[in-house]
Write a structure and sequence with these properties.
Length: 297
């Protein structure tokens, strides 16, 4: 047996088990879901009749789907802006500005990431409670008048009300990711910038931002993917897609069809739509954020 063959077998012995697990728990469910999307399976019966593109035709004519897709991208857009601005600010503040107790603040900001999304949803439902919520109590104190705004029960406010908990829950993880990127930037670059008289703003735009671009790009893609695939969790805890489908998202629509009306075929078609949108959005985001990598020797 040649040395190259032995090396290949050695590498394969590590890759193959992981590849098999990936195929079983990722590739097969995706392919199975695509197949089910072409059937009328209810989920509880053994019969699974092939109906072609009927589920996709129903999908195209479902007005709630368009509303849900809009809400998904609405949440994605504001989550990207909110999380990236706040996480970047705190990452720079806790590294470059030499704030005392930075380790403590890192723990505080990361704390929401160790809490279940269900707990986060329940906490913010109490915050938005019309009569007992902290938000209305604070507004009543500021205005001097009783405020009982139904934040989650009014279609004008409900979707916006989902953004603070969604953004709050994601800041800590991406802050830590960006802190790691900033700490990997060589200190002599900042020292040279200071000698040249560069302010903190100029150091950020001309040193930190270019060398942090790869971490920023990865962060944006992760936020987009986790939002398109996971927004339904916070929706299912806080608003159930209401009021009047104002907070409906594709993931929750899938859940409703699969476990509410037992239309597994249609739900699978929604799942395929989520998969396609996720892939297309990722490709577009990577294209929009493309640029040459800046390397430091």
């Amino acid at each position: 047996m040649s040395a190259n063959l032995k090396r290949s077998l050695f590498i394969a012995s590590f890759i193959l088990p992981t590849f098999i697990v990936y195929c079983i728990f990722t590739v097969y469910p995706i392919l199975r879901g695509i197949y089910i999307s072409f059937t009328d399976w209810s989920g509880g019966s053994e019969t699974m009749n092939f109906i072609g593109l009927d589920n996709y035709r129903e999908l195209i004519h479902d007005p709630i789907i368009y509303k849900a897709a809009y809400n998904d991208y609405f949440i994605v857009f504001w989550k990207v802006i909110g999380i990236m601005l706040i996480a970047t600010y705190f990452a720079v503040a806790l590294t470059r500005l030499k704030i005392k107790g930075s380790a403590f603040y890192r723990i505080v900001f990361f704390f929401p990431n160790v809490i279940s999304v269900v707990v986060i949803g329940v906490i913010w439902r109490f915050v938005y409670n019309p009569k007992l919520g902290i938000l209305n109590s604070l507004l009543s104190f500021i205005t001097g008048k009783p405020v009982e705004t139904p934040w989650l029960g009014d279609s004008d406010y409900a979707l916006w009300a989902l953004l603070p908990p969604a953004i709050w829950a994601g800041i800590g993880f991406f802050m830590i990711l960006l802190i790691a990127g900033i700490m990997s930037i060589p200190a002599p670059l900042y020292e040279s910038a200071e000698i040249d008289g560069a302010s903190q703003w100029k150091q950020f735009f001309h040193v930190t931002l270019p060398l942090l671009w790869e971490q920023l790009k990865v962060s944006v893609v992760l936020i987009v993917l986790t939002s398109l695939n996971g927004s339904f969790i916070i929706v299912s805890i806080m608003t159930y897609g209401g009021p009047d489908n104002a907070t409906q998202v594709l993931g929750y629509r899938l859940f409703e069809k699969a476990f509410g009306t037992y239309q597994m075929g249609y739900a699978s078609a929604v799942g395929v739509l989520i998969l396609v949108l996720s892939l297309l959005t990722t490709v577009v985001m990577r294209w929009l954020m493309r640029r040459e990598s800046v390397e430091v020797s």
